[in-house]
Amino acid sequence: MSFATYLLGIVAGLVALASVIELLRRRRLRERHAVWWFVAALLALVIGVFPATLTWASQLLGIEVPTNFVFFISIVILFFVNLQHAGELTDLEDRTRTLAEEVALLRVKLDRLDAGSDERDRDA
Amino acid sequence: MSARDPRDGRTLLVLPALNEADSVGEVLAEIARVLPDIDRLVVDDGSTDLTAAVARAAGAEVLVLPFNLGVGGAMRAGFRYALEHGYDRVVQIDADGQHDPGAVPELLDGLAEADIVIGARFAGKGDYEAKGPRRWAMTVLAGILGRVSRTRLTDTTSGFKAMGPRAVALFARHYPAEYLGDTVEALVIAARAGLRITQVPVEMRQRSGGRPSQHPFRAAIHLVRAFAALCIALIRPRLTVPERPAAKNGAGS
């Protein structure tokens, strides 16, 4: 591995971590959505700074090509991010539905109130 | 602004409630007995029991949220209601009866000198005890938040608080709904917006239902999340107190 490659790994990890923190800071990302990205960025940085940890962990698990271990971890993290998003989407759809129903019920109530006050105006 | 008399200006008691039908009626009745002149608002945070009906029967105004938003979300709805209806002060009090309404005038008196008055446990009054990691977490959090707000605080996770006009205006717009946002982050936001925070010792009563978790593992998770919330709150940009809009309906009492 050349020095440039080593540097690229570190810079990529740092940029990823900084992006997550900056989005959190500007309230563009909620804490519970940031957790997986934060873990991923932190792992990337650790492996970037100490590439030996990757080789060591791969050997420990009997994975012959360390890069495969990286792909495996990446897919696992992306899987969980997607799963979380799917869950949140379901939740949001549920809430929009409830809100739409609530608005419809309020509109009926408002129409009835309007009709009532029109009648009173005519009677007066 | 001086507000020595609790009846000088309008005060709203806000009770966030999630499935508290068993206790909210009694709590409201006690409040009516002890503080007959203060308006009460129950924010029903998506309860599946009769909380809203019981609260209405007890004579409180009720906001029914269509789904659960958490204490932070319920309280922001309460602050917005207060702002829209021309209330100067908001007192947050639990619907489960653990807070003594008799302490409300003391909290309101504190607003003469501060924008937020916390009703604090562990301040030398009452026998409320938390042990082990949970206690340490509370102490350390209180220490850091005390430094941020430049006052001595012993209990920052209390849900018994009085807010003055500036705090109401700030919180009606920026009241966090994250985990611990309604306690830790809210205080950081307030302190960094230049609001003065102080505390008054209060006695806590046994909760009618449920006990705080004392399990070491859950206490550790709580500690980690509390510190994450605190760090994030501290690096976020400062917020300023928005200007108070003119009250729409009946500001005069």
Tell me what the structure shows.
The complex is a heterodimer of chains A (124) and B (253). Chain A is mostly helical. Chain A has two domains: 1-49; 67-124. Chain A is 90% helix and 0% strand. Chain A has helices at residues 3-25, 31-49, 51-61, 66-123. In chain A, α2 (31-49) crosses α3 (51-61). With 253 residues, chain B is α/β, with parallel strands linked by helices. Chain B has a single domain, classed as Alpha-Beta Complex (Spore Coat Polysaccharide Biosynthesis Protein SpsA, Chain A), CATH 3.90.550. Chain B has helices spanning 21-34, 51-57, 70-84, 104-110, 132-148, 165-173, 181-192, 216-235, and strands at 11-17, 39-44, 61-64, 89-92, 116-120, 161-163, 197-201. A seven-stranded mixed beta sheet of chain B has the order 3-2-1-4-6-5-7, sandwiched between helices. In chain B, α1 packs parallel to α2 and α7 packs parallel to α8 (216-235). Chain B is globular. The model of chain B is unreliable at 1-7 (pLDDT under 50). The interface between A and B is small, with 13 and 10 residues.
What descriptors fit this protein?
heterodimer, A: 124 residues, mainly alpha, 2 domains, 4 helices, 0% strand, B: 253 residues, alpha/beta, Spore Coat Polysaccharide Biosynthesis Protein SpsA, Chain A, 7-stranded mixed beta sheet, 8 helices, globular
Please give the count of helices of chain A. Answer: 4
Task: State mean pLDDT of chain A (0 to 100 scale).
Answer: 92
What's the SSE pattern of chain A?
HHHH
The number of domains of chain A: 2
Radius of gyration of chain B: 17 Å
Strand proportion of chain B: 5-15%
Biggest sheet details of chain B: 7 strands, mixed
**What's the end-to-end separation of chain B, in Å?**
19 Å
E-strand count of chain A: 0
Largest interface (CB < 8 Å): A-B, 13 and 10 residues
What is the strand arrangement across the widest sheet of chain B?
A: 3-2-1-4-6-5-7
String of helices and strands of chain B: EHEHEHEHEHEHHEH
Computed structural class of chain A? mainly alpha
Low confidence ranges of chain B: 1-7
The global form of chain A is elongated
Give the overall silhouette of chain B: globular
Which quaternary structure do these chains form? heterodimer
- Total count of domains of chain B: 1
> Main β-sheet of chain A: number of strands, strand sense, barrel status?
none
Helix and strand content put the structural class of chain B at alpha/beta
